[in-house]
């Protein structure tokens, strides 16, 4: 009952939010919540640290933007096609890297992301360092106008809720249980007859698809796709978001994403000092909130329940 009331309250807040908060900021938060959830599926549940996760996000932004601007796709078809394309890229990356783990997996994904970065830098359709600009917000289903910030917000909200629900179903399925087992003891899982590499490839495929969807949504929000979206800075930021909220928790990385986006928005006026403040926050979290904010809150609630 408490969970239903909480979800109802969140729904009311989400529906009313654009009338009180700048819709662009809210849509940015939603995009990074989906992006953080995709990263959480890899590191939080499968134990795979990906240093190049921004390649799915940034490439998704370019593909989604190009499909809407040059391909004439409606916005929902562009999002769907981008999700499938990035899932395919994730599958290829998985085939290359799934047999490795730990720092080896992280460095392989970083190397591939740098290759993708320079590939897109040279590709003519990306317009190099200028980026893909003036991306149109094409009509939903070809008939519903979503060009205004308010109408686009509700579309992004609906897609984000569906993506997060999909992520929830993944981690609470038997497949999700196997991923957690691989994270905790891969050798034991292999001794039971499972092939961990196959599960890693599927996890990377699903994670890449969600990240690509987040990138396409961001491109439609800002109507531009740039190489910055593929940079290591973005990959590092998403790691920070996940650690801040709490890896391996459903809501943790989403909370971390929301906090970092709002922090960046409020600290933009301070220039380089914003990076110093972010670093301080990260240091405090590492020293005093090892499980992340949501993880520590859940641990505190469990301790209180045990004592009661």
UniProtKB/TrEMBL annotation:
Localisation per UniProt entry: Cell membrane
Main location group: membrane
CDD domains in alphabetical order: TM_PBP1_LivM_like
Transmembrane stretches, start-end: 26-56, 77-96, 102-120, 140-168, 199-217, 238-261, 273-294
Superkingdom of the source species: Bacteria
Record membrane topology: Multi-pass membrane protein
Keyword Coiled coil attributed: no
GO molecular function terms attached to this record: branched-chain amino acid transmembrane transporter activity
Keywords: Cell membrane, Membrane, Transmembrane, Transmembrane helix
GO cellular component: plasma membrane
Protein's UniProt keywords contain Transmembrane helix: yes
Name recorded for this polypeptide: Branched-chain amino acid ABC transporter permease
Organism, scientific name: Pararhodobacter aggregans
């Amino acid at each position: 009952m408490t969970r239903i009331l909480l979800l109802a309250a969140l729904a009311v807040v989400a529906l009313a939010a654009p009338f009180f908060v700048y819709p662009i900021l809210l849509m940015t938060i939603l995009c990074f919540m989906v992006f953080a959830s995709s990263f959480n599926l890899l590191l939080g549940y499968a134990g795979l640290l990906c240093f190049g996760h921004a390649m799915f996000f940034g490439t998704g932004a370019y593909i989604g933007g190009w499909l809407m601007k040059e391909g004439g796709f409606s916005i929902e078809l562009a999002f769907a096609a981008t999700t499938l394309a990035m899932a395919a890229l994730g599958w290829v990356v998985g085939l290359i890297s799934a047999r490795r783990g730990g720092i080896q997996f992280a460095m392989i994904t970083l190397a591939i992301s740098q290759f993708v970065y320079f590939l897109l830098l040279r590709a003519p359709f990306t317009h190099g360092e200028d980026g893909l600009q003036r991306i149109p917000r094409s009509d939903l289903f070809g008939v519903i106008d979503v060009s205004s910030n308010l109408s686009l917000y509700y579309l992004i909200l609906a897609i984000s809720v569906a993506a997060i629900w999909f992520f929830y179903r993944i981690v609470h399925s038997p497949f999700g249980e196997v991923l957690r087992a691989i994270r905790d003891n891969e050798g034991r899982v292999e001794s039971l007859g499972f092939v961990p590499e196959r599960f890693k490839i599927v996890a990377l495929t699903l994670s890449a698809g969600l990240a690509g969807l987040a990138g396409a949504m961001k491109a439609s929000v800002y109507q531009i796709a740039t190489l910055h979206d593929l940079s290591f800075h973005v990959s590092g930021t998403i790691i920070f978001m996940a650690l801040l909220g709490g890896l391996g928790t459903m809501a943790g990385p989403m909370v971390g994403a929301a906090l970092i986006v709002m922090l960046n928005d409020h600290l933009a006026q301070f220039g380089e000092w914003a990076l110093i403040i972010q670093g301080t926050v990260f240091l405090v979290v590492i020293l005093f909130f090892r499980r992340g904010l949501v993880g520590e809150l859940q641990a505190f609630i469990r301790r209180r329940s045990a004592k009661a």
